[in-house]
Amino acid sequence: MAGYMPLQRQVGFIYDSPNLFIIAHELGHGAFNLRHTFSPESFIAAERTTQNLLDYPSTGVTVSLSNCSGQAGTELWKHQWEFIRDPQNIWFAWAQEESKGEMIAVIDTGKFGITITEMNVEFAPSIGEMKLKYKLGDSTKVLMEKYPDEDFLTKMFVFDKSGQKLYESEKEATVSGEFVWDGFFGDNKKDSLVYEKGPFKLSLVLTNVDSSINSWQDFKDWAYEIFSEDSVNTFMTSCDTSFNILTGAHLEWIANKDMQGWVVPSSLEDYKRIQQIYMTYDGVKESGNPFDYIKENTIYVDFLGKKLRVHNEFATVLENVKTTLKNKGVYSALTNKYSSQYVETFAMRTINDPKGGGSVSEHGFAMAIDILPKKNPQILSVNTDDKPYNTYVRFFIKVATGFDVGTSKTVTSIKSAHEKLLNIFSNTTIKALTDEYQAIYTYNNNTENINVNSLEQINNDLNVLKDACLALNDESTSTEVNNVQESLNNYALKIKSLSANIVRYKNTIIFDDIANGQIDDLKIKLGEINSELSNIEKTLNDAMPGTVSFSLIEPSDYDKLKEKITAFNTEQQKLCASLYTFATRLKSGVGSIGFENILLQDGFCDLEIDLINAFLDADDRIQWGGAFNKKVDGMHFGFTTTAAKSIVNKNN
Known about the structure:
It contains 23 helices and 21 strands. The chain has about 650 residues and is an alpha+beta fold. A hairpin with a 5-residue loop joins strand 7 and strand 8.
């Protein structure tokens, strides 16, 4: 409010920055009984359309009046001059605006306040509701008690981006309250919010005066009038914000809360990402969105004691598999095995990587099934960012079983490799295995130890010891005898240490039957040498030996053993230089397989051949993950990517 002077009064007030226009304008009210040119009591012209002194400033910037700035008028018209020459009395002037002004004092009007405390705009017409909670300021509560006869109102206005009023609601003001709106408006709520007309402006108002608002400009004009009107009994305070209704993926997410749990990972941001990929399929576009496509094209079926959500096409596949297994008389046994295990078909995700991009997985359309992933895990043949040691696992399985997860494979070959792995490591943990590798590394890294690849050196060392023993005689000093005894004892310990170390090569570096047989033979030979060294060392305590005999080693007897060790070391060093590092990374790689798989106990293909073949025979379009070229994914059966896309797009 820039100024205030009731009609035909001798006292007025000028606020803020007084200027000649404001002073003249207010004196026109008080001293000469002049009303606004747009006053209902003597309407002449619409507000801000004239250059009259008793109009509000029009567009332009020359003078400030309250919260409005514009071109100030200076004209006075004939009827106004007549009032100035002969001001008319106003009967019951005490009952005009001034008396009302005494109800809410000017000093109090600026103390009213209202605040939005919570606003939920995750809605669209027919989907949820907008909920706006507010509270009044502490001083407002005091003023409402101070003026108990006033009708305090809270109003909520919604305008589209062009400024057109769409919706208005009001209620009696309370210390705190809530507005709830479903997004519909107009006669009989026939109209509703449209995303393209947003963002929408919202104003929450606390006032004691009614209004007629049709647009955002009307709202601002109303606010201006209240602040610059003659009377001080009216006030308005507001807080403004903007919002838009849900659309696209966000709207789909809110509208399908029953489907959110199928999204992997289950968050709005993840759905927004995969929704764009789903919408590249013509069939999904035809349905409108991914959720609707799934609802329209999936059913629940019973399979292996599970109730599974599957695509209509895949339901036929499962029925064929079930029939085949029943005809073989094995379905009941398989149901008993798998009914309590993880068996799942549907998850809205991308291929192989729930967190990344790519194509929609067959599981994303409920066109695939995973059976007992703990014992049929996915093992990749190449390293990835989240699994950087897959190649170590691939190498280990290959040297242990002869099976390469990174090449083409048959049902028989993968089953045989799985069973061989379990037979070899049935009583071994990955920690115990890698401890053996690291122990081999530590032994071989000590230059004092005898290396298994240097067996020829053992014969040379034994001949040296033999000569030392034969050099002793009755005239040899005790020191000379003790030195020979010490040499014999030390070498016996080396032979014993080599014997213990060579055993570690079995089921770590050596998996060949012939080489393992040579390890057993060498261990026996080393044991004989150790006994001979000990016996001769003890004999020297009583008499000098007349003859000395050691069991020498024939290196060629262990060619297969050395060949396999060399081959392992060559391939292992392509992964990393150190066997110790290899062990550490192998342990990490096995641990990162996931699916709660314990490789040495669970293997990687625990499925029955009858079950595998039943799927492969059920439909020519079905593929088994165990036979993938670049990985093993034994749990997985489903349509090929090409077939799945054709089904979704209805090209089949």
